[in-house]
């Protein structure tokens, strides 16, 4: 059935609305001031990645001379690029206003981010000393006038475009000199100046360089010198060649290297730049009017605000929570023994992620453990997970790691880990041709009196100690032999992927996830038509599969009550009479990044509950290996129902999805107490420990 355009929200536009919610956090006075500045950095980082991936994809469609309507929800690709650029220009302008307000409030707290024009005499001495000791030797400076070919600009870098007005130059500026200075990445973007009384001073590295420009260009006799920031964003799609003589690691490495010279998809410049400087740059860089040219503020690469120094002002940052233990799961005893008797669930960061590393370290040392198998998508830069796996090899265990080399923007990190693990004797699997492996599973085989017994864990998130502090994710520890027998089939599929296995418990993409969830929705439709209670509760990151959207619309029309918590992209429009009036959808954006995938189907009073690594996106359902797991333990089932309700009842940080796409906060009823779900979640788990 052909859908009208207004039955879906375009995924790119919906993503930009998600990033607008991130920008809202930087405006929200309930968020501590320094964290508001860091949210501004997250907003900027998100936007960079959006242009590298999603905008670049749409631009490729345009460059190929196609409309793209079939894959863009009815939008013409060319029109969509124009709409995106318009929205981004507006969001950038709003983000600049937000920064001005934050800067004003920082000054009220005696924290001053000063420009080069505000430097006093004692600060000038410190800055020049800092420049010559740490910065000058790191500068990459290029004089542009006489170059026959414009230098290749990195999409991860910010540049100062320098205009040097020479003495005795003509009135038309023919003797102006132009240069580029690359902002060094190896030096902190924020330079903390000596404290003066109770006042803290910070200068951006960009402005520190501006202050010392006369020292950089001493070879010229100039009347004036000015510098404005520019940056470009390049297409980040990996173009993998078909050279049969190369290993898969070599192909991915080559493709990552090729990103450095891929096509630019966005050019951002300081809107106060001189017109002649801008024109000079655009001509030299062959930038056309059809390209995404974004006028911005004085500072780019504002993602660096994520690392704004604390200055010891913990009163201006979120309190760090102490991760809780799981009731009944002691870090002191054997986790394998405890899991043998009962399933356990951790919900990071409310619970400590240390259970995962403890599980692997115990398996690495246990004389009865024969093998460990695990999937890896993103690892921490200094991974305890990798260390435990190497430790297992050294103790004679057979260790198999399926590592995804195409994990977006983590390719180089994963390549380095792959080489390291392989050198240490780990058996590596590099995925399935044509499919990314996004599942989050681990299987341990242990020789016991009755034979081989399996233990394992299944997660909604990456096995990454760093992100586990800021991403919310469920991880199930289990010794359910049926579930783990299915898991062994998943690993068998990695080795012999021409054979499609059948699973009794797990829900596995690309062969079964969509069909399984379709059947579960159909069952709720049957119950609704029979006059029985029928409901669906979903918590995911993104919903972009039009087939799943259509099925939810069908369920809504049949009378199934649907509650959805979608952090990011949502192509479904809830609350439309005759189409989706039985669907409600919210997004919670707060201190932690909401990352779990949870699915609850009413099933006529006996709910079916699943956690999964898969969002309801076409890529997750059809082009990735994903694993979903049913929850059988009654205590954990109730816990998941409870945690969904806590998130659903959020009336502080919940935004309501609607046709308006205005990111309106959910309204609180008169007299209703405020419920901020992430804070309430922590209290919920504290109460469980005390019960």
Number of strands: 27
Beta-strand residue percentage? 15-25%
> Which stretches are low in confidence, meaning pLDDT under 50 for 5 or more residues running?
1-5, 240-245
Oligomeric description of these chains = single chain
* Helix segment tally: 18
Summarize model confidence as the mean pLDDT: 89
Largest sheet: 8 strands, mixed
Estimate the global geometry from the Cα principal axes: globular
> How does the helix and strand content classify structurally?
alpha/beta
Radius of gyration: 27 Å
Question: Kindly, what is the distance between the CA atoms of the first and last residues, rounded to a whole number of angstroms?
Answer: 53 Å
Please bin the fraction of helical residues: 25-40%
Architecture overview:
By secondary structure, this protein is of the alpha/beta class. Strands 10, 11, 12, 13, 15, 16, 17 and 22 form an eight-stranded mixed β-sheet that branches. An eight-stranded mixed β-sheet has the order 18-26-24-23-19-20-21-27, with helices on both faces. Strands 2-4-3-7-8-9 form a six-stranded mixed β-sheet. The longest helix is centred in the N-terminal third of the chain and has 32 residues, at 77-108. Mean pLDDT is 89; it is low at 1-5 and 240-245. It catalyses: [phosphate](n) + ATP = [phosphate](n+1) + ADP.
């Amino acid at each position: 059935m052909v859908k009208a355009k207004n039955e879906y929200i375009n995924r790119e536009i919906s993503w930009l609305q998600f990033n607008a919610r991130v920008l809202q956090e930087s405006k929200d006075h309930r968020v501590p001031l320094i964290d508001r500045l860091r949210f501004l950095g997250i907003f900027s980082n998100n936007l960079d990645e959006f242009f590298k991936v999603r905008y670049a994809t749409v631009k490729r469609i345009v460059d190929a001379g196609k409309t793209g309507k079939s894959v863009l929800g009815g939008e013409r690709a060319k029109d969509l690029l124009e709409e995106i650029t318009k929205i981004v220009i507006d969001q950038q302008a709003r983000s600049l206003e937000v920064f001005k307000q934050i800067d004003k409030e920082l000054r009220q707290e005696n924290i001053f981010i000063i420009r080069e024009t505000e430097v006093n005499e004692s600060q000038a001495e410190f800055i020049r000393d800092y420049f010559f000791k740490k910065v000058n030797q790191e500068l990459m400076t290029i004089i542009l006038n006489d170059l026959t070919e414009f230098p290749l600009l990195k999409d991860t870098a910010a540049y100062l475009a320098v205009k040097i007005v020479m003495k005795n130059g003509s009135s038309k500026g023919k003797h102006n000199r132009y240069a580029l200075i690359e902002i060094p990445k190896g030096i902190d973007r924020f330079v903390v100046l000596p404290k003066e009384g109770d006042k803290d001073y910070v200068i951006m590295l960009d402005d520190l360089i501006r202050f010392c420009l006369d020292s950089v260009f001493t070879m010229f006799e100039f009347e004036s010198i000015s510098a404005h920031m520019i940056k470009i964003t390049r297409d980040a799609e990996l173009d993998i060649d078909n050279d049969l003589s190369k290993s898969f690691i070599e192909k991915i490495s080559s493709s990552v290297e090729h990103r450095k010279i891929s096509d630019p998809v966005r050019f951002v410049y300081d809107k106060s730049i001189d017109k002649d400087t801008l024109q000079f740059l655009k001509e030299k860089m062959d930038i056309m009017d059809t390209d995404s040219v974004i006028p911005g503020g004085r500072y780019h690469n504002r993602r660096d605000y994520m690392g704004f120094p604390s200055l010891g002002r913990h009163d201006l940052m979120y309190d760090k929570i102490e991760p809780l233990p799981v009731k009944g799961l002691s870090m002191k005893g054997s986790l394998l023994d405890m899991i043998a008797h009962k399933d356990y669930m951790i919900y990071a960061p409310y619970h400590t992620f240390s259970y995962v590393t403890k599980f692997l370290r115990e398996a690495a040392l246990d004389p009865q453990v024969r093998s460990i198998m695990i999937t890896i998508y993103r690892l921490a830069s200094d991974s305890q997970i990798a260390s435990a796996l190497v430790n297992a090899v050294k103790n004679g265990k057979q260790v198999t790691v399926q590592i995804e080399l195409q994990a977006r923007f983590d390719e180089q990190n994963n390549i380095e880990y792959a080489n390291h693990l392989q050198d240490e004797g780990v058996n590596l699997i590099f995925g399935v041709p044509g499919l990314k492996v996004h599942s989050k599973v681990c299987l341990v085989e242990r020789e016991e009196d009755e034979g081989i017994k399996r233990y394992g864990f299944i997660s909604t998130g990456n096995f990454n100690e760093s992100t586990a502090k800021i991403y919310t994710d469920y991880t199930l520890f289990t010794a359910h032999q049926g579930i783990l027998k299915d898991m062994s089939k998943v690993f068998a599929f990695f080795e012999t992927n021409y054979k499609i296995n059948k699973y009794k418990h797990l829900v596995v993409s690309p062969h079964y996830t969509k069909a399984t969830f379709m059947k579960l929705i159909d069952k709720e439709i049957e119950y609704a038509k029979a006059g029985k209670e029928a409901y669906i509760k979903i918590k995911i990151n993104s919903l972009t599969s039009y087939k799943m959207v259509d099925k939810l619309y069908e369920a809504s029309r049949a009378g199934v009550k649907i509650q959805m918590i979608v952090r990011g992209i949502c192509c479904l429009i809830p609350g439309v009479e005759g189409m989706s009036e039985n669907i409600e959808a919210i997004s919670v954006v707060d201190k932690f990044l909401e990352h779990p995938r949870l699915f609850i189907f009413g099933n006529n009073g006996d709910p079916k509950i699943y956690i999964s690594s898969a969002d309801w996106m076409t890529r997750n359902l059809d082009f990735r290996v994903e694993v979903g797991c049913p929850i059988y333990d009654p205590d954990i089932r109730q816990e998941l129902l409870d945690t969904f309700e806590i998130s659903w009842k959020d009336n502080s940080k919940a935004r309501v999805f609607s046709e308006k796409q205005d990111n309106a906060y959910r309204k609180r009823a008169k007299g209703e107490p405020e419920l901020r779900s992430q804070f309430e979640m922590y209290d919920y788990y504290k109460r469980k420990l005390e019960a």
